[in-house]
Amino acid sequence: MFNGLTTNKASVAIEVWGALEPVFKVSRVKKGVLKSVISRFTIVLEAKDGSMVSCHVHDTGRLIHYIPRGAPIYYVDVYRTGRTTGCDAVATGDFDNLILLDSRLPNTLFSKLIPLLYESPEHLREVVREFPIRSPIFKYRVDFMILEPGKPPLAVEVKGVNFADSRGIGLFPSAKSHRASRQLDELRMLRNIKVGGLPGFRVSMAFIALRGDISEVRPFRSVDEKFASKLCAYKDIIEYKAYKTRSILKSSTINVYYDGEIPVNPCLS
Predict the structure, then answer these.
(1) Which domains does the chain possess?
(2) Alpha carbon 225 to chain centroid distance?
(3) What is the torsional sign of CA 114, 177, 85, 257?
(4) Which residues does the chain have with pLDDT short of 50?
(5) Quick one: which of 130, 132, 226 has its CA closest to 176?
């Protein structure tokens, strides 16, 4: 559709995906056309009735700046006291191969994928979101702490990837992220904590591919050299995983499907 944002067309027919159960749905979705980008987090759309609407982009990257004027943007109305915008941008791209824009979605999607990704029976597994860790060395709140029988606790930080190059390689981050670099350091420190001479924690960074045309994930070195260097340096300490999702619009609902695990290449760019 447009360079750097959409590469390969969905290889599986919508009818096939429609027969599967989505892991998540976004309802009451409307379609607009991008007219202008006011800032990194605010855009103006032309709605179906021709009116102009100001929409919030809850994306910590810079993908919105690569979307050409006139491209479709899918959004939901949000009415809340104190807001300066009346909607949230959710996705862009082709209706059968959407690119998700909302950076709040990766953690939600990961929570839905946990039963599919981990072997322990659900009744024996405990999952805590925003788990606080306090020690004399540092204080830290991890996205997910997963407790399974007979294994050290697993701390997981989740990152969304919605920027891809023409090769179908998902690149993260699409804007410099001091927070992501710090989280790598915190996971490394957590992994080094010993309990009875053994590692007290397993640690992982999970990348959620927010578009169906990504085949692997790599660091975006030209955007964030520090993150890229740490991701490579910590590859034997932190476990890296990437999970692909595919999103399809049906009527006024975006259905998000799990499309399998894809590789992470932490030292390539």
Answers:
(1) 14-100 (2.40.50.580), 105-262 (3.40.1350.60)
(2) 20
(3) negative
(4) 1-4, 6-13
(5) 226
> Is residue 242 within 8 Å of residue 110, measured between CB atoms?
no
| Residue 138, token pair as written in the block | 């540092």
177-192 in b/e form (b: 16+ CB < 10 A) is: beebbebbebbebbbe
Q: Strands, DSSP E only, in 47-153?
A: 52-56, 72-77, 87-94, 97-100, 126-134, 139-147
pLDDT digits (tens, 9 = 90+) for 62-83: 899 899 999 999 999 998 888 8
User: How far, in Å, CA of 229 to CA of 173, rounded?
Assistant: 13
Structural Rg of the chain based on CA atoms = 19
pTM, two decimals, is 0.91
Angle, CA of 38, 49 and 249, to the nearest 5° = 80
Residue pair 147/193 in contact by the 8 Å Cβ criterion: no
Token output for 243: 């999970």
Q: How far is Cα 31 from Cα 48, in angstroms, rounded to an integer?
A: 7
Whole-number Å distance between alpha carbons of 48 and 98:
19
Question: CA nearest 98: which of 18, 207, 213, 17?
Answer: 213
Tell me what pLDDT residue 12 has.
46
Give the model's pLDDT for residue 140. Answer: 84
Q: What pLDDT is recorded for position 137?
A: 74
Distance of alpha carbon 97 from alpha carbon 11, whole angstroms: 10
Q: Distance between terminal CA atoms of the chain? A: 23
SS3 84: coil
- Closest by CA to 205, choosing from 168, 177, 225, 164, is 177
